[in-house]
Design goal:
The chain is mainly α and 269 residues long. The protein is built from ten helices and no strands. The chain is globular and about 70 Å long.
Length: 269
C-alpha cells in the first residue's frame, strides 16, 4: 500500500515537472519563431527580439514608457473593479431568481455577442474625450461576461444545498455567503479571469481610437508613422501585462480547485 502511494506521488511529481517544463518552453519557442520570422521578413518591417529589447530600454530612458503603462494599468484596475463588482451583484441577484434569470439571460447573451466597438461612439459623445470615458467603456463591455457567468454559476448550485439554506431561514446575504459562494468560488474566479480579458481588450481599443495617454495611444502614434520597433515594444508590454494578470487568475483557479476538490467544468459557458 505504501509502495503504491509512493509510486503515485513520484508519478505526480514527474508529471508536474513535465507540465512545468512545457510551459517554460512556450516563450522560448515563441522567441525562436519571432526571430526566424524577423529574419525572413526583414528587421525594418518586423524587428527582432533584440531590436525590440533595445527599443524598450530606449523608451524607458526617454520617459514615455512608464507613465503610459501606469496610465493603462490604473485605468484597467478601475474598469475591472467596476465591471467585476457590478457584474457580481447583478449576477447573484438575477441568478437566485428563476423568473429574473429567464427574463435577463437572452438579452444579455445577445448584447454580449454584439461587437463592443459598436458602442464606443455613444460613450464618446456622451462622456467626451478623457480618462473616464475609456474606464467606463471598458467596464461596461466587461460587465456582460461577469454578469452572465455569475448568473450561470449561481443557477448551477445544487438544489440540496439551497433547500438546506431555506430550511434554516437564511436570508439572501447568508445564502450567498455560506452556500453559494463556497460552491461557486472556482467558477467566480474563472468569471473574473474572462472579465479581465474582455475589459483589457476594450481598454486598449479605446486608447487606440481616442485617448490622451496610455499604451494604446502610444501604439496608435507609432502606427501612424510606422515605427516598427516602437510598435513591437509596445505590443510586448501589452502582452506582458495581460499575461501576468491572466497567469495570476489561472494560478488562483488551480489552487482553489486543489483546495476545494472542485473544477470549473460545471460552468455552462
Amino acid at each position: 500500500m505504501t509502495q503504491n502511494v509512493r509510486t503515485r506521488s513520484l508519478a505526480s511529481r514527474l508529471y508536474l515537472n513535465k507540465y512545468t517544463l512545457g510551459r517554460l518552453l512556450v516563450p522560448v519557442v515563441l522567441l525562436i519563431i519571432w526571430q526566424l520570422v524577423a529574419m525572413q521578413v526583414g528587421p525594418r518591417l518586423f524587428p527582432t527580439p533584440g531590436q525590440t529589447w533595445d527599443r524598450l530600454l530606449q523608451a524607458y530612458e526617454a520617459g514615455w514608457l512608464v507613465p503610459n503603462t501606469r496610465n493603462t494599468i490604473w485605468a484597467g484596475t478601475l474598469a475591472f473593479l467596476l465591471a467585476a463588482s457590478s457584474g457580481l451583484l447583478f449576477g447573484v441577484f438575477v441568478g437566485m431568481r428563476t423568473f429574473a434569470y429567464d427574463l435577463a439571460e437572452p438579452p444579455l447573451v445577445s448584447m454580449y455577442a454584439v461587437p463592443k466597438l459598436t458602442f464606443y461612439p455613444v460613450f464618446l459623445f456622451v462622456l467626451g474625450l478623457g480618462f473616464n470615458t475609456k474606464v467606463i467603456y471598458a467596464a461596461a463591455t466587461a460587465f456582460f461576461p461577469m454578469a452572465l457567468l455569475t448568473m450561470r454559476a449561481i443557477r448551477n448550485v445544487d438544489e440540496t444545498y439551497l433547500a438546506v439554506g431555506k430550511s434554516l431561514n437564511l436570508n439572501i446575504y447568508q445564502m450567498f455567503r455560506y452556500i453559494m459562494f463556497p460552491t461557486t468560488i472556482v467558477q467566480l474566479v474563472v468569471a473574473l479571469r474572462l472579465t479581465f480579458s474582455s475589459m483589457f481588450v476594450s481598454l486598449i481599443v479605446a486608447e487606440l481610437f481616442v485617448s490622451r495617454a496610455g499604451l494604446g495611444q502610444q501604439l496608435q502614434q507609432a502606427m501612424g508613422i510606422y515605427d516598427a520597433e516602437r510598435i513591437m515594444a509596445i505590443i510586448v508590454v501589452i502582452v506582458l501585462v495581460a499575461f501576468v494578470v491572466n497567469a495570476a487568475f489561472y494560478w488562483a483557479q488551480k489552487a482553489l480547485e486543489r483546495r476545494w476538490n472542485m473544477t470549473a467544468d460545471s460552468m455552462n459557458v
